[in-house]
Amino acid sequence: MRVAIAGAGAVGRSIAGELLENGHEVLLIDKAPGAISVEQVPQAEWLLADACEITSLDEAALQRCNVVIAATGDDKVNLVVSLLAKTEYAVPRVVARVNHPKNEWLFNESWGIDVAVSTPRLMSALVEEAVSVGDLVRLLRFSQGDANLVELTLPPESALAGTRVGEVRWPEDTALVTIIRGSRVLTPGPEDALEPGDELLFVAAQSREEQLEELLSVRREPEDDSR
């Protein structure tokens, strides 16, 4: 897979390193000469250019890319790069970094963005995820289809504890994609039983999040000790 990254700062270089380790081709683009640190990511291609300029993107052969990541520290730049990648070069997948939460509402399909990653939101979500049991935590927003990646740690008192995945009537527009159980990452099958403490990751429509949280957090009826 060929990936172009606009923004060769710490974030862009870190992403590039991960992608290269996974066997992908990476092109880093930045207009600041000081950001061109070839020695830090020597396996990547480098281009000193303004990613907001059509001529620069032509030079980058953006039409050959499977993914474009707009990872600069400027939200305006990330929006422009995303829009050009999608509309002018028909890049199949566009991922954009959101630097300021107040701009998050702009990062959607209207600007050619398939996935928007808000660093402040992600950090707060990870904090919530670490301390919350039984509460739905939104980890990532997908622009297309109005869907989110959400997580919930199944509480011990949940009525679904011990229930097989295939027996649960999940809300529409909701898919259980992963169960994290201790150090294990499980691909859920119909016969797998949910256990208290499981971290459940879903892709779900935003309109279904409240229904999903209610389903997973509903408490068992207390046992009658008088019998």
TrEMBL record:
GO biological process: monoatomic ion transmembrane transport
Entry superkingdom: Bacteria
Native organism taxonomy: Bacteria, Bacillati, Actinomycetota, Actinomycetes, Kitasatosporales
UniProt xrefs under SUPFAM superfamilies: NAD(P)-binding Rossmann-fold domains, TrkA C-terminal domain-like
Ranges for domain RCK C-terminal: 137-218
Gene3D superfamilies listed in its UniProt record: NAD(P)-binding Rossmann-like Domain, Regulator of K+ conductance, C-terminal domain
Pfam families: TrkA_C (PF02080), TrkA_N (PF02254)
UniProt keyword list: Ion channel, Ion transport, NAD, Potassium, Potassium transport, Transport
Domain RCK N-terminal: start-end pairs: 1-117
UniProt-recorded name of the protein: Trk system potassium uptake protein TrkA
Keyword Transport: yes
